[in-house]
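ingest -> fold -> write
write: protein_1
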Amino acid sequence: MTQKRLGKGLQALIPDIDDTPLSDAEEIDVKDIGPNPYQPRKVFDEEKMRELVSSVKEHGVLQPLIVRRAGNGYELVAGERRLRAARLAGLERVPVIVRPFSSRDMMEIALIENLQREDLNPMEEAEAYQRLQEEFGYTQEQLAKRLGKSRPAVANTLRLLALNAEVRREVAAGRLSEGHARAILALPLEKQPVAARQVLEQGLSVRETEKLAGRMGPAHGKKKEKPRQNDRYLADMEEKLREICGAEVKIRTSPRGSGRLEIHFFDQEELERLYEMFCRFT
């Protein structure tokens, strides 16, 4: 089995790991390794785990786990899947590299390791971002830079935390995509589960979900807007503006041809970001 090298983000946090041969790692008892308290992943793909366990049984653990000392034992920093596979394969000892990481380092490494290997579902990713913000004071800009993502991508992921709990479960389970979730976010909390169930029952696309949210969104008694003659053109404009702003954008038109441009923001920080972005254009 070919050893998978660490991604760029992890390499920045653990610069010498890729260059450390397995022979230089020390072996410790599996039972002495405690979990990473900052592990963001809660769901593990069963099929992938079975494949990894089979590989570990045949070849052993080929890439050392990263741990730090904790009391009389150790605490896992990176390598959650390998540790689980080693336990399931019945290994008593595993190769490790011991490093004196701080709690901030551990959380960053656990998050980046999972993000780079695409192991987190959108809700786990959003919750991990929130935890980094709350526990370590990261701004969205700092998160984006540290994780190698764009600011709009981080902002869009954090918005998922505003979803109704039922919808969040569907997203976490993979039954609703992040695109579906962002479309449903335009609705009030009480309407979101209704929309989600309709999306699942009818197998709606993201674009169809956006249209569904548009139909469900206006309050009763509110004058409906005239159907747009150039829906496709305006929808493309909305999509482009979303990419530029990193925020939900709606173009509203009136029968007279006038209208308004709505840009939705998630919190005060995002409002300030949008303000600074538009000021640069003046």
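write: protein_2
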Amino acid sequence: MSDREEHVVAVLGAGTMGHGIAQVCARAGFETRLADVDVPAAAAGRAKLEQSLARLVEKKKLSADDASATLARVRAVDADAACAGATIVIEAAPEKMELKVDLLRRASKGADPRALFASNTSSLSITELGQRLGAPERTLGTHFFNPPPVMELLELVRGVGTSDESIERALAFAAALGKTPIVIRDFPGFATSRLGVCIGAEAIRMLEQGVGKVADIDRAMELGYRHPMGPLKLSDLVGLDVRLAILEHLHRELGEVFRPPVLLRQMVRAGRLGKKSGHGFYRWTDAGPEPSDV
């Protein structure tokens, strides 16, 4: 008999990360509720999830029956319905502490009494989030990577008040999702964001200073250090606005080494946010990304 905990998962936020996380949870066999600012927004996220599953079937990476079963486990609902009786609540909202606190406070009113409250934040304090929520022992970070159905890593972030039991439950949940977890102490930027934005920011500074072109800077890390994707292309994929927000937070918390490059600020102001806007350090075309030197 399996001793796996049969979670009911609420995912708050149906954007790129949210619907991807919902897909991972549903494919692992968990009942999954997807919510956003309203039900139509949640339904739009579920539709993107359905498209993602269809692509996997087309590529013969998933059977049509498994795709149908996965989709059947996902409901697009409002936030209150999503959280009712949920045993794990994962918020995938924008990087704003007040928004995350508000979402999880509302979630706590209807969730299971033992529910884990998890944040997909890439840099904000889990300790502060848990304290303000009033459930520090059951609050932790579950930092998924884009795209969640593909990326193996799950960074679990332990706040000062997070209990051993919650970490053990989160590790078991990660295993059920087929992810490889790491457990990181709550500190600005955790492990992955701190390392990732350092490389990304330095690549942007090199471009800013004319050291090399976009394709060559990325190729240096892909071929010289075996990175699967160069730092400028990865920044486009994450979103330049997201990268800027993380750098601004780390600059406040940790100092000058994380000061955002001027070029990054200019690109965000110009609406060049990367893949989601169609243009960042690359132009994202139907034929694939094309380097766009600035």
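write: annotation protein_2
The beta strands are 8-12, 31-35, 74-76, 88-91, 116-119, 139-143, 153-158, 180-185, 282-285, 288-291.
Residues 39-58 form the longest helix (20 residues).
pipeline exit 0
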